[in-house]
Amino acid sequence: MNAAATYEVRPSSHPRTLAERTAALADLKFGVVFSDHMARARWTESDGWHDRRIEAYGPLSLDPAAAVLHYAQEIFEGLKAYRHADGSVWAFRPDRNAARLARSAKRLALPALSEEDFLASIASLVATDAEWVPSAPGSSLYLRPYMFASEAFLGVRAAKQVDYLVIASPVGPYFTNGFQPLSIWVDAEYNRAGPGGTGDAKCGGNYAASLLPQALAYEQGCDQVCFLDAATGTYLEELGGMNVFLVHADGSVTTPALGTILEGVTRDSILQMCREGGREVSEQRIALTDLLEQIGSGDVTEVFACGTAAVITPIGRLKGTDFDVTIGSGDAGPVTTELYEAITDIQYGRREDVHGWMHRLV
Length: 362
Ligand code: COI
Fold this sequence. Notes:
The protein is an alpha+beta fold and 362 residues long. It has 2 domains: 3-171, Aminotransferase class 4, branched-chain amino acid transferase, N-terminal domain (D-amino Acid Aminotransferase, Chain A, domain 1, 2-Layer Sandwich); 182-347, D-amino Acid Aminotransferase, Chain A, domain 2. It has 8 helices and 18 strands. The protein has helices spanning 18-24, 68-71, 94-107, 115-128, 204-219, 265-276, 288-297, 334-347; strands at residues 8-9, 37-44, 48-56, 74-76, 79-83, 89-92, 140-149, 161-171, 182-187, 224-228, 236-239, 243-248, 253-256, 281-284, 300-307, 311-320, 323-326, 358-360. The strands form 2 sheets. Strands 1, 2, 3, 4, 5, 6, 7, 8 and 18 form a 9-stranded mixed beta sheet that branches. A hairpin with a 4-residue loop joins strand 12 (243-248) and strand 13 (253-256). The longest helix is centred in the middle third of the chain and has 16 residues, at 204-219. It is globular. The chain starts with 7 loop residues before the first strand and ends with a strand. The model has no long low-confidence stretch (mean pLDDT 97). 2-OXO-4-methylpentanoic acid (COI) is lined by residues 78, 207, 241, 307-309. The site of 2-OXO-4-methylpentanoic acid (COI) has 6 residues, from loops.
């Protein structure tokens, strides 16, 4: 690592005690507890990236005119640090998150952060807060790198001052019930992203746009919303914060093609594992009407959601304004279960990492 990407560690003056940390790590939920430190760096048009440091986790001081608060010039990432049985700590394909952050930055007119810089920020933070990486089954330290326009300016243009931070949150399962089938509301009214929009960038605005339809999904008694394409209202896109896969009776898998959806790291890993396992794999347009027919005929036997936070979670039911169908038996199917076990075994170091996907942090 060159000196330019070194994060200076300024230890917190008020880290939590062992007793406080032990209490915080008991019975973990998703995204409610945060570690003692955070990584940060600043970019300005004149100086580029500078002032890289690890410092105490705490509130930010932000000018009320900071552009992000007005025009949502913001992007983020999500990845996890996993504790292995020998105590070591590993990230799963962090180079893919670095590459996606770079693509998102381009789309949101934010400055590029190099892969080296990205990896240095997470490695320094996790090394500083290594005790915050939990070891309970299924738990991990969720890392949330993000970048936003901090320049105080109300004109609409790309900001000339940008902040990059990484915060860390010890987490349990994203869905309270863990690996239990979800019910999905397929929303025909609202769209997440249109052609040429920001659907393939990981920016906060996409998630803000998903919140009203997600609330409607809850009203319908469903766990998650699924979006259809904005251009025709015909094809499946993705869920509020995760990708979706179908498993067919012949063992093949299909998932919506890239374009207006997020290129998930878990999505890509599943595609690769399926291909290597001899399954036929296809990234294609999936019409909702075809899917409903295929569920009815038994051609589609399993549907699942996937993402860093969600890992792989079975989907047991699809509901819309004029349908309500159960998929297969409504329980987790064998292919979903097999893929969940394969990916989590690699992430937690229980299975050989033949792809070189794991990156040691501590
Ligand atoms: C992730 O899976 O890491 C996500 O970013 C999804 C969600 C928590 C926003």
